[in-house]
Each structure stands twice: as structure tokens, then as C-alpha cells.
Design brief:
Helix content: 40-55%
Structural class: alpha+beta
Number of helices: 4
Strand content: 15-25%
CATH topology: 50s Ribosomal Protein L17, Chain: A
Oligomer: single chain
Strand order of the largest sheet: 1-3-2
Distance between the termini: 37 Å
Length: about 120
């Protein structure tokens, strides 16, 4: 039984899930909008919103935490997160992303677009 296990597994190991979320988060920060499955978008939302909250703090410790969450310290992604994205949401208390369902593929997967508000 899976009591108290709320995270999605995606048929991957823990390392695979971590790598998946990191790459999706980096792509979302770089492009501002990505298309993926609905389940991945729902799992990505709290991950990215936490990163934006780090960006709003703007401290060195927050930069280090964000770099840890994104894997390698990619300075261009961290810089964009802190200098461009977080500045847009300085007066907003959460809810930085939007998930728009776009239908399903012929294989039956429900697709969605996740983007910054």
C-alpha cells in the first residue's frame, strides 16, 4: 500500500525522477513555457515555485539552494531566475505558474503546457 506517498514515480528510480525534474525546471526557466504531460507538469509546479521563492529572497544562501536544486550551478539559468523571473513576482505570494491542459495524444497521454503567469 502507498499510504502517505504523494509523489509521482513516473516508472523511474529516484535519481531518474530528480534528473527529470531538474531538466524540466531548467527548460521552463530558459523558455518560460514548455509542453509536457499533465502528470509531469503537476509534479513540476511546486518544484519551480520553490525556486522562484528562492529567487525572491535574493540572498547568497538562496542562490546556493537554487543551484543545488538545479543540479550543477548553471550561472545563466540561476542569473535569469534571480534577475528576471523573480523580479516580476516580488509582490505576488505564490502561484507563479499556470498549467493549461491541451488534450491527449493518440497514445492516450494527457498533454499540458506549463508556463509562468
Amino acid at each position: 500500500m502507498r499510504h502517505h506517498n504523494k509523489n509521482r514515480i513516473f516508472g523511474r528510480t529516484r535519481r531518474g525522477r530528480t534528473a527529470l525534474l531538474r531538466t524540466l525546471a531548467i527548460s521552463l526557466i530558459e523558455h518560460g513555457k514548455i509542453q509536457t504531460t499533465k502528470a509531469k507538469a503537476k509534479e513540476l509546479r511546486p518544484y519551480v515555485e520553490r525556486l522562484v521563492t528562492y529567487g525572491k529572497q535574493g540572498t547568497v544562501a538562496a542562490r546556493r539552494n537554487a543551484a543545488t536544486k538545479l543540479g550543477e550551478p548553471r550561472s545563466d539559468v540561476i542569473k535569469k531566475l534571480f534577475d528576471e523571473i523573480a523580479v516580476n513576482y516580488k509582490d505576488r505570494d505564490g502561484g507563479y505558474t499556470r498549467i493549461i491542459k491541451t488534450g491527449s495524444t493518440p497514445a492516450g497521454r494527457e498533454e499540458a503546457v506549463i508556463e509562468f503567469v
